[in-house]
Design brief:
The complex is a heterodimer of chains A (179) and B (187). Chain A is of the alpha+beta class. Chain A folds into 2 domains: 98 residues, Orthogonal Bundle (Peroxidase, domain 1); 72 residues, no CATH class. Chain A has 8 helices and 4 strands. In chain A, helix 4 runs antiparallel to helix 5. Chain B is rod-shaped, with a radius of gyration of 69 Å. The termini of chain B are far apart. Chain B has a domain of 40 residues. Classes of the chains: A alpha+beta (179), B mainly alpha (187). At the A-B interface, helix 7 and helix 8 of A face helix 2 and helix 3 of B.
Chain lengths: 179, 187
Amino acid sequence: MGADQRIDGYAAAILEVATAEDELARVGDELFRIARAFESSPELRDALTDPRLPTELKKGVIDDLLGSRTSALSVNLVNFVVGVGMSADLPAIADRLAERAAAKRNKVIAEVRTAVELDDETVDRLTSSLSQATGKDVEIKTVVDPSVVGGVVARVGDTVIDGSLSHRMQEIRETLTRR
Amino acid sequence: MIQFLAPLLVLAEEAVVEESGGIDLLLPETSELIAGFIAFSIIFLFVWKWVLPAADQALAARQEAITGKLTQAEDAKQEAESLLDDYKQQLARAKGEANEIVDDARQTADALRTDLVGKAEVEAESIRGRARDDAAAEKARAAGQIRDEVAALSLELAQKVVAGSVDESAQQTLVDRYIDDLGSLET
């Protein structure tokens, strides 16, 4: 079984569990945020993927970090993934879970990165605009990412629509260095 | 023969003693003449019979020997002259060949020198060209590096300034503009 199939299998299993517990939306959202935190925090990533650290210690870290802020089911599912040694694949599993959950509702996931938190009204407008721009019924997952500086970076599947200040600055940098 | 002639000599001496005086004192006795004639004849015969042929033979042999030696000398001289001519010709040929070899060597050396000088000039020009290219590339690289660093520093500074100046209102404006811009991407 390849890594991609394993990721898909774990995502499917978590989907079934969350659906059975009727917490799919919440679990999907929480796991997505945990995955982004995992990606943006090298310390957390190193702690959870270090093969020398015992699993119990890793679970303790997860409980300390997430226990009070996320549902018990989400914490258990993350502990499950870490316990089977798939810590490094946690973001991919979360993404696949979000995709499967969205697909179940005939939607696609749009990952939206902004420098600040978006209000609900802006998220709704963004959802509508992205749906029209991509021709798909999108479901937005927002991620606060200070490296965006300003504006929005949206990723729908393999399509990235980058309207961030960091992207514009990168373009200016490339223009300056190409001369 | 001496014994035979001895009485004749005694008779002759007696006749001289008896008839000594006048013209007879000057003329030899007849016996003396006869004896002298006989002695002369004997000696003449001896000489004519043995001495002259031996002398002729010796002279002929001597002449022949001299003639042979002269011929040998002539032959040797001709041979020597022939050898001398050969040597002269060989020497001339050797000189000619030596001159040709020297000329060839000189031409070869000239060609080699010309070739080497040409190659050295080409190589030197190539090295100079490479050095120029390297210098130009290094200059361009350094300029590019400086430009990149300046751009990076400028952008970093600009990013910090922008990040600090983008307040909540500006963030909302940027998001709104993004949403408006998405309209132009509608499929």
